[in-house]
Amino acid sequence: MADILTQLQTCLDQLATQYYASVCYNLSRHSLVPPLQTSDPYSAPIKEEPKDEDAGEDLVRPLRPDSPTTFAANQLQLVRDLVIKEQQIEYLVKVLPGIGTSEQEQEERIRSLEKELRQVQEQRKQKRREMRVTVKRLENVIMGVANSDGRG
């Protein structure tokens, strides 16, 4: 269950990041908005290589609106990515243990698992006892071989 919860948290974080990226893209690349200034908090300036190597400074240019075709295609891709991420989240929620079962059924399942755990622990104790007996027998055989080699 912890693994599913971790995956679910990761997907929710990714979904939030995708929402933010989508909003930023729409704000910064829409054709009805003039190109964003570098002081705009929603802008993501693009750094270019300095044209004059002696200047040693990065040049920053503001983002420009995308063409309507590019903008529509990118929006469609952003929507597809959001839908896919939402479907992943939906699947993870669906496979969480206990979803679709009543509290009583979950309690019965816990009691059943506790009983099974006690049985497995008892089997483990029995196997350890058997292992100790086997180790003792093996030690006796080894000591017997060592004693017989020393006499010969």
UniProtKB/TrEMBL annotation:
Any one GO MF annotation of this record: transcription coregulator activity
Transmembrane segments: none
Subcellular location as annotated: Nucleus
Keywords, sorted A to Z: Activator, Coiled coil, Nucleus, Transcription, Transcription regulation
Primary localisation category: nucleus
Record-linked InterPro entries: Med7/Med21-like (IPR037212), Mediator_Med21 (IPR021384)
Gene3D superfamilies reported for this sequence: Mediator complex, subunit Med21
Coiled coil: 103-137
Any one GO biological process: regulation of transcription by RNA polymerase II
Region called Disordered, residue ranges: 36-67
GO cellular component: mediator complex
Primary role: Component of the Mediator complex, a coactivator involved in the regulated transcription of nearly all RNA polymerase II-dependent genes. Mediator functions as a bridge to convey information from gene-specific regulatory proteins to the basal RNA polymerase II transcription machinery. Mediator is recruited to promoters by direct interactions with regulatory proteins and serves as a scaffold for the assembly of a functional preinitiation complex with RNA polymerase II and the general transcription factors.
Family as reported in the entry's similarity comment: Belongs to the Mediator complex subunit 21 family.
Subunit field text: Component of the Mediator complex.
Name of the featured protein: Mediator of RNA polymerase II transcription subunit 21
Organism annotation: Endocarpon pusillum (strain Z07020 / HMAS-L-300199) (Lichen-forming fungus)
